[in-house]
Specification:
This protein is α/β, with parallel strands linked by helices and 809 residues long. It has 27 helices and 26 strands. The longest helix has 19 residues.
């Protein structure tokens, strides 16, 4: 197959043939399909064996912030989704090429058909956060929004208008709010994400860009080191086999040595049986420094690689202005520079809780490997010291010259092969930005926030606080933001943020804070296109049609609602630009397709429904061209090389302001504990507390689906030895608490977590009486997390926490 020829793609005829074969097999065997995914009536198998006049099958997809965003086929009868099917036949010669959706995607009908879905526009009648509303007309809702938006612009200017991240809605036209606000006068922008703020901000200083090989490179590796990377937890669905992700590579290369360094014996380990090295949360950079010490002491570095491709690992490759000051990474490791402490394995063992002997062995394994594949994922960088920690981990392959070769990667996250298709947007006339994580600060004291203290971009300081706040499909006010109790107090104070607009499908925690609450239509109820996430070496596009009527009751699409708000603001023509939602979808797609000959036409896409294109190279090792010729292919760093020492970060060290001495920036990736590390544990709060991704939710999406919650109960992981000391038994209700709040949650007593640490999966829906005891009975970890941003990215530190746990008597 030629590289530019369309590949894969499955026709509807092929799909129906596969669906019929699959259901006929189930009928013959007498197997009933689990009610979690499909309908439970005994007649199901016979009905589904063919598409009857009463039932239709509609191409759709998952639309949340997931690595897969799998295609789905909705079986619809009487305008209601009866059951959901994922891909049943391989779409190329690889028998694994079936995108099998996980329990989340296959249960989305329970979200769509939820009897408690929002049905009408509403206005608040109680206090903010109480969740008390009354029904109003669309005309009143639109006019109220427009009046408040006009008033905000007139009184405060565009920096007072802000819309938060909404990761629950992915589609080419899935986020029209930014376009609306760009047309009406502008808004305070944001940079970064809740998922990956620290590594995304830090990586360009060292690497020029955040880049990594795809997991398929593992097939050519002899040593795989997974630092906080659990694909079974964070890349569910189709990513593992069909897209040549970790599971496929592991199966293709069983002879490699696989080592997972993680505070938890995660689900990837449980599935693979690989080696687990437990590590104390937030101490990864200390482990790297000790490995570096062994490599230096035993002359195991690839010195020629370091001399050719890096800046600042050694004194002689430092920028001239910083030579003679012991500012290289080698000087840090050997105790000659910075804190003047030698980073021996014994030193690191006390910090990481990894035995000294295992640290030495790990260094030897790294040095002896022909093609080590080192990967981290976003948990490491979602700490208060996340920038330096993520850069430190990426040093592991650099020190042994394992960059740009088959079977290797950069030690950053994992790469993906996908189509580049933008979303609807507009040119924001307001150029000021804040970190996505600091919006609550900008409500509370935005006029005090500056570039050097708070990371404001595009201005020296903010001119005003946020006064008009929009939330769309994100549940990000309290549930997904840190320190939910403090966020609540900020939001309910109407003297601070004067107007809050929320678009949602259900009454989640964010919806309770709306002044105007609008009922949105699910993406499965709309026509649209979505490309896949970041899931391996197959690029995919789904061309979706509406499964059911979205405009039931008085629900409306956000695109159309924004058009009406634009009309009330006098900018409807500018917002629409001559196109309805489908017109925008077509234009965005066709513009992208004109630049990418791999992609089918718009009409071809809708004819086949689902399009796949496998990387014709299998995979491409990250930075292969740079390593082959660093002069012709320099990195986008000032030197064109891997900057182990970053002069740009050093300039920030000299100019930025910090109130807390635990906030540390450094031009080389040193270990620093950060805020709320294990060093901050006390007798009352003796545990570190981390979050993790859970199979039942993508962030908080699906957090309200009762059957999924029943299948995957929310729990706090506690080590067996720690539980025994506290008299806590598996499955009993406990209190997890700290200075930020208290959660009542089931205990999971297990040896699968390092002693001294607790873990609660992120995304569970808060359930607290905020006018009473404020105890969260929903198990939301952000009741317990800190709102203190990280030093460089001003990002989300939600894995850096200390806590206590006790039995509930």
């Amino acid at each position: 197959m030629e590289a530019n020829a369309p590949s894969g793609g499955m026709s509807r005829r092929t799909f129906f043939k596969g669906a019929g074969a699959a259901t006929a097999t189930m009928a013959a065997s007498g197997v009933l399909v689990d009610a979690l995914f499909e309908k439970a009536e005994p007649a199901f198998a016979a009905e589904a064996n063919q598409q009857s006049a009463e039932e239709k099958v509609v191409q759709s997809h998952c639309s949340c912030n997931c690595a897969s965003r799998c295609p789905l086929w909705m079986h619809v009868k009487d305008d209601e989704i009866q059951w959901i099917q994922s891909e049943t036949e391989p779409w190329d010669d690889d028998e694994t090429s079936r995108q099998r959706a996980c329990l989340r995607g296959r249960s989305v009908r329970r979200w769509i058909n939820d009897p408690d879905r929002l049905k009408y526009p509403m206005k608040r009648v109680g206090k903010r956060g109480e969740g008390k509303f009354e029904r109003i007309s669309w005309d009143e809702a639109i006019q109220t929004i427009a009046d408040n938006l006009k008033r905000t612009y007139e009184n405060y200017g565009p920096e007072a208008v802000y819309w938060t991240l909404g990761s629950g809605v992915y589609s080419l036209t899935g986020r029209p709010i930014g376009r609306l606000l760009a047309c009406t006068g502008g808004y305070l922008g944001y940079y970064g994400t809740y998922s990956a703020a620290q590594i995304t901000k830090a990586a360009p200083y060292m690497w020029g860009a955040k880049t990594a090989s795809t997991p398929a490179a593992i097939k050519d590796s002899d040593l795989v080191i997974c630092m906080g990377w659990s694909p079974s937890d964070s890349m569910m669905g189709s990513t593992g086999e069909s897209k040549h992700g970790f599971e496929w590579a592991h199966r293709m290369n069983p002879d490699a040595k696989y080592i997972h360094i993680d505070p938890r014996y995660n689900d990837t380990l449980a599935n693979s049986g690989d080696e687990w090295i437990p590590i104390r949360p937030g101490t990864d950079a200390a482990l790297v420094a000790a490995i570096a010490h062994v490599l230096i002491e035993e002359n195991l570095l690839d010195q020629a690689f370091l001399d050719t491709y890096t800046v600042g690992f050694d004194e002689h490759t430092l920028p001239e202005a910083y030579q003679g000051k012991n500012m290289s990474y080698r000087d840090y490791v050997m105790g000659a520079g910075y804190d003047k402490v030698e980073k021996t394995p014994a030193w690191a063992a006390e910090i990481t809780l990894i035995p000294e002997e295992r640290i030495v062995k790990l260094a030897h394994e790294l040095a002896e490997a022909e093609a080590p594949f080192v990967a981290q994922y976003y948990g490491i960088q979602r700490h208060s010291n996340g920038e330096l920690a993520s850069l430190a981990v990426s040093l592991l392959p650099v020190m042994v010259g394992a960059i740009g070769k088959p079977g290797t990667s950069t030690g950053l996250d994992v790469g993906s092969y996908s189509f580049s298709i933008p979303w609807i947007g507009g040119t924001n006339p307001c150029k000021t930005q804040i970190s996505i994580f600091t919006w609550a600060d900008a409500i509370d004291h935005g006029h005090e926030m500056t570039a050097t203290h708070d990371g404001v971009v595009g201005a020296d300081k903010l001119s005003t606080d946020i006064k008009f706040l929009v939330e769309y499909g994100g549940n990000c006010f309290t549930n997904q933001h840190s320190d939910a109790n403090v966020a609540h107090d900020i939001l309910v104070d109407e003297s601070k943020c004067e107007f809050i607009l929320v678009f949602e499908t259900v009454m989640n925690d964010a919806a309770k804070y709306a002044d105007i609450l609008l009922p949105d239509i699910m993406r499965a109820e709309q026509k649209g296109i979505i490309n896949d996430g970041w899931s391996g070496d197959v690029a995919s596009i789904t061309f979706a049609s509406p499964a059911t009527t979205g405009e039931k009751f008085e629900r409306r699409s956000a695109f159309d609602v924004c058009a009406d708000i634009a009309e009330a603001m006098g900018v409807r023509d500018e917002y629409l630009d001559g196109k309805d939602q489908e017109g925008w979808t077509r234009e965005i797609y066709e513009t992208a397709a004109a630049k990418d000959p791999r992609m089918p036409s718009y009409e071809e896409g809708y004819e086949i429904g689902e399009f796949h294109y496998r990387n014709p190279k299998g995979y491409t090792p990250a930075l292969a061209t740079f390593v082959a010729d660093p002069v012709a292919n320099p990195l986008k760093t000032p030197s064109g090389k891997i900057e182990v020492f970053s002069e740009k970060i050093q300039k920030l060290v000299e100019t930025w302001e910090f109130d807390d001495p635990r906030d540390v920036l450094c031009p080389v990736p040193i270990y620093t504990p950060g805020v709320d590390s294990y060093e901050d544990c006390t007798e009352e709060l003796p545990f570190t507390l981390i979050g993790f991704h859970y199979k039942s939710r993508t962030h908080s999406s699906w957090g309200g689906v009762e059957l999924v919650k029943e299948a995957c109960p929310q729990e706090v992981w506690i080590n067996t030895a720690d539980a025994e000391k506290l008299g806590i038994e598996n499955g009993e209700m406990v209190s997890v608490f700290n200075d930020h709040g208290e959660v009542h949650i089931l205990a999971k007593v297990t040896p699968r977590i390092i002693p001294g640490s607790l873990a609660i999966s992120q995304g569970a829906w808060r359930d607290a009486d905020m006018s009473g005891d404020r105890i969260d009975k929903g198990g939301c970890i952000n009741t317990l997390t800190n709102m203190h941003p990280s030093p460089l990215a001003k990002g989300n530190p939600q894995h850096s926490n200390v806590a206590g746990v006790r039995k509930i008597s």
